[in-house]
Amino acid sequence: MYTSCVINRLGSNYNGYRPVQTCVWSTDIDRSVVHFAAVGCEEVCSDYVRDSPEELHLKIDNTKLDDDGRYECQMGRADVGPVRASAFVNVLVPPQQVYFQHYKADTVLEVNEGTVLNITCAGKNAKPAADIRWFVNGKLINDHIKTWHEYNGNKTVTSYAALLWKPSKTDHNKVLTCEAQHKETTTELRTSLTLNVLYSSEKPTIDIFGGKNSVKAGQNVTLLCSAAGGNPPPSLTWHLNERPIPSSYEYDFINQITRNSYSLITEGSDNGAVYECHSSNRQGVPALKQSITLEVRYPPASVLLYGDTTVKKGDTTTVKCVSGASNPGSVITWTVNGSPTKVQQQLEKRLASGVSTESNITLDTKILMSDKNHIKIECMATNDEGTTSEDHIIRVLSPPSPPYIYGVDQEAMLEGEKLNLSCEAHGGHPLANLTWYRGVEKLKAIRNTVSGETAQSMVTIPLDRSMNNVSIRCEAENGALDHPLVATKVIYVLYPPKRVIVRHPEHDPQMIVGQTARLTCNVPSSNPAAEISWEFDSGNSNKPVVEKGQYLYNRTSSEYGGWEVENFVTFTPTEKMHGSSVRCIASHPLWNDVKSNSYILNVFYPPRVVVDGPISIVVGEGESFRENISVVANPPVASYRWRKNGIYFENTIGSVYTRGSLIGGKAVTPSDTGIYTLVANNIYGSVNISMKITVEYPARVTFITSPVIASVGEEVVLECEADGVPKKKGMVKWMRGTSELKNLVPGEEKRAVLRLNATHENSGPYVCVADNGVGRPNYTTAYLLVKKPPQIIRSRGSDRAAGPLGGRARLRCRASAVPGVNFQWSLEGQPAYIQHNSSKYLFHDRQLDHSTFESTLWIIGLDERDYSRRVRCGVSNNLGNDNIYIGIGPPTNPDVPTELEVVNVTDKTALLSWVTGFDGGSDQTFEIRYQMRGSLKNAKSINVSENQAILTGLEPEKIYYVQIRAVNEQGRTSEFSLPAIEIHTLNLNGVDVQKALVNEESFSRTTLIAFFAGLVILLLINCILLCYLHRRQRRKKIQEKTEIVRTLNPSSDGAVRPVQMYGAIGGGTPAISRRPDSMNTNKSELVDPADIDSQSQRTVIEVSPNGYMQRYDPNYYDPNVIVEYDTDPIYYSKINKNNGGLSNNMSNITYSAVPHPEPPENSRLIDNNRYGEILVNSNGTLTRNNGGSLNGSRHVLMDSPRRYRTGLLGTLPNYSSNQGAYGQYPTSPLDLPPLPTDSSNNNNYGVYMSHQRSPPPPAQMFSTFAHPGGVRTTSTSNMPLPDGDLV
């Protein structure tokens, strides 16, 4: 495209030169310069295209819509200024697309005929705007078109044309075209739609084949319906009386005609039927209809007769005849008994499908009847198409003669008999129907018969009282009678009364003991009148007492027409009569049975207790009881009140509760003992009964003298008091081991007193046993503590301690002594003691039990000097001293535990124990490894911190190998113990199968039985001989010692000194009582020794002043340590037994002032179970019963679990499989606490002492003072008696 710019000549040279001209093209699209040229020219400026010097052309190639706009040519001259000229470039753009809105091009558009079509066509993005036109099959449409334009931002225009058009069926299949014409560019774009106009067919027509509208019934007729046109082709359906008829139609594509034919065989019901043909091709558009009405000629199908079927002789009757529908209408004619009659009046009725005719005829039986009993009538209906007739029979009725009843005479009959009656009636048509009645009740006949002109009926009637004076009626009836003919007979029945009524007078309803009472007997109805008698129960006798009574009246009764009788009797009731029966008997000789009724006497009387004599209830403590006291009264007891020991209470007192006459108790206590009285009341009086309730409870120790500290040779008194129900002589006794000691007051029920000389041999626990036969015996231990010097307890690792450099080490020192002990720590080579806690040394002491004490020293900041010198632990009291040196070294591996053994075994569990060693400088635990013999599985392991463990989950009748090693907190371990021990688990019956097999192999069963039988016989003989010799020797010994006491004087040379029965004697000083006098102490028990012979035989214990016998009892003593402490025994003698305090003269002394305060709560004790195998020798040394020495021994003989259970701990319970491997240990009668920490390892709190085998007794049993909760109980210890008898 070229744009020209012509420059007019402006003139010639000025001042001898041509002016410079500048030509610029610019456009107003973006106000930018299109091209710039500055040249010096003579006439014109040229750029790009120049046709002449005065022209400059702008050429635009490949014109775009963006190039549309105004262009300006500018020329500039220096002498004139700018000169401009504009040119316009108009870019023509044809429409990009022509399309229908909301419709897709080149598709078929479906539209109903007569529906307005609104369709819009658009020509998109043309410049200038395109012209939109509509065509139908190429024919331009100008009407009902609306056009508008939308201008785009790029200067193009979108043109729209909306067509509103109502197509008809002639427009079907025509093409609707939209054309966008752009004249500037000669562009024409088109898009088209094909119209599918939906329209209805022509109204259908109906043709009849086989006849005209009027046809005869049974004729075959075809109806043809036709409908031309329609898009889509219509469906043609037949309807009969507006109900659709199943049919099919077909469409003729060539002629575009739809046809539906329907054939039928006409019937009378088709007369007047309207057949209608419907043409429909679209939903919502009403169907086109055409109808035809048929006329069918047919005869009447039936005749119906209406009239009586029976008529009484001499009456008249009317019969109606109605013909069925017919076309044309019918004519009705009659015949009577075969003879025609004149034509009767006719009445026609128009029906939906024809005409019905009615006619009536009236008959008089007087004229028509001769000897006949019926009339036959025939009705005929006739029209041009045929005839129909129907017959009707009328029966003529006549009455019978009156009936008569046979079988009844005037004699009365008994109730229960049967009466047979018959009734007859002659003549009548039909024969009479006979019916029986009793009053209004109809009776059922047993047989009805007919004999010639006679009707008969028989009935059997069971007689009862309701038929007395009742008439029986026979009724004869047939259709000829308006009312039945009746015959009647009256029946008389003898019957006893149905009920007898016995009652108490209403004005005096209460029957009270001792007051006259009256009963009335009434017989409401009987026939004849009843005879009355009375029978009273006579208690134990089987024969009742008979009374006649007095008659009040004898009169006729309205009930069944019998007789009513009333009789009364008077008597005086007693309490025994309450609940008994009085019978009223009604009888008569004419009756087969009698009738009676009983009256239960309700005699009112005050309460009475059924139980005779006192009531006593004995129940155990903690048990429950329930007793219901039977109290009889009428009326019932109105109120129950209870009192205990004379004081009333409501419902509950203590553990006893009451509910009415019931008394019971739940978990009763001794305080519930007492006299309980029940008071029961009613309106006629009251009664009370008392019972004694005794609550039995086990005997329990209420006071015991413990502990007693004495010097060797002192005489002491131990007293024990107990309480329990029942109280028995000998209920309280003293035991030493398994031997019973003699009580000073044998006649006492609640107290036992023991006197003995204090020696090391008889020091230790003395058990007071309280047993009254109820529950388990109560064991309470008293301790006789004999003063002794301290002795350090030495065991494995007790002389070693360990700790890292810069760390700390713990040294522990444990000693045994009576009384207290002083610990002193010092360094080897240094005479000075460690007196005070410092940053280097910390120490503290504690008492573990009555005779065991412990001191712990901590050394902080260890260095080489601490490793090179030992530490001395010294213990002392006023009787002696002892010391031990403890070396300190670096941490090491712990020692291998030793003496691993099986304590007890069951089918699934095993209890193990062992002796611990040095822990290497830190707390240690123990790893137990065990494996079943022959098992391919890996060995199992458990870890425990004590020196006992329970293995669980074992299998019965198996062998397990067990080893143990120690592991401390530093991770150091010892080797496993060797050799591994074996565990033989029991079978499910608790039998060691391995031992049983050995026994069975060794001896036969017969041999074993014979052997044991002989052994038992020998043992019995030996026991008898030993008992005899023992009693003889004891009697002799007592006599000898009595003489010694009488002849010997107190000696100071120490050869032999007598020990008196009570108190302590020293160098001729008076005896010192070991306990203050109490209200329960008999003064005669503490008499002067000079008067002993007048009271009892004195017993003397000989004690050598140079030695002592001491029972080895770990409860308070260890043989390896002798610790001495100084104690004033007078403190313990001043302790009051009632409140644990001090006597009046010692009231300023508290427990803290006593040298032996109660051990700390967490104190733990050493084991005592090993000493069932230890014997005390005559020289004061300790040995085992197997002959070995105790020193250095690490083995305790345990032949069997049974032997273990008979030690000091009492019975050892079986360990069940549900206990943990190292859980709580079982408790014995001593209520064992967990095991103590090991005193032999100076840095280990978590293990036991080296010689322990089983859980120790509780710390409480060694307490110096009485516990707040009362006296604790312990088991008896297995200790021998000291030499000599204790009284």
Describe how the helices and strands are arranged.
Layout: E1 2-6, E2 21-27, E3 33-39, E4 55-59, E5 69-77, E6 81-89, E7 97-101, E8 108-112, E9 117-126, E10 131-136, E11 139-141, E12 145-151, E13 157-165, E14 175-182, E15 187-198, E16 205-209, E17 214-216, E18 220-228, E19 235-240, E20 243-245, E21 250-252, E22 257-265, E23 274-280, E24 288-293, E25 295-297, E26 303-306, E27 310-312, E28 316-323, E29 331-336, E30 339-340, E31 347-350, E32 355-364, H1 365-368, E33 374-383, E34 386-397, E35 404-406, E36 413-414, E37 418-426, E38 433-438, E39 441-443, E40 447-451, E41 454-462, E42 470-477, E43 485-491, E44 493-494, E45 501-503, E46 511-512, E47 517-526, E48 531-536, E49 545-547, E50 550-556, E51 563-571, E52 581-587, E53 595-600, E54 603-609, E55 615-620, E56 625-628, E57 631-634, E58 639-644, E59 647-649, E60 652-653, E61 656-659, E62 662-665, E63 674-682, E64 685-704, E65 708-710, E66 715-725, E67 732-736, E68 739-741, E69 751-757, E70 764-770, E71 778-786, E72 788-792, E73 800-802, E74 808-818, E75 822-827, E76 841-847, E77 852-860, H2 864-868, E78 871-877, ...
Parallel strand pairs: 8-15, 17-25, 27-34, 36-44, 46-54, 55-64, 65-71, 73-79
Antiparallel strand pairs: 1-4, 2-3, 2-5, 5-6, 7-9, 9-13, 10-11, 10-14, 12-13, 14-15, 16-18, 18-22, 19-20, 19-23, 21-22, 23-24, 26-28, 28-32, 29-30, 29-33, 31-32, 33-34, 35-37, 37-41, 38-39, 38-42, 40-41, 42-43, 45-47, 47-51, 48-49, 48-52, 50-51, 52-53, 54-57, 56-62, 58-59, 58-63, 60-61, 61-62, ...
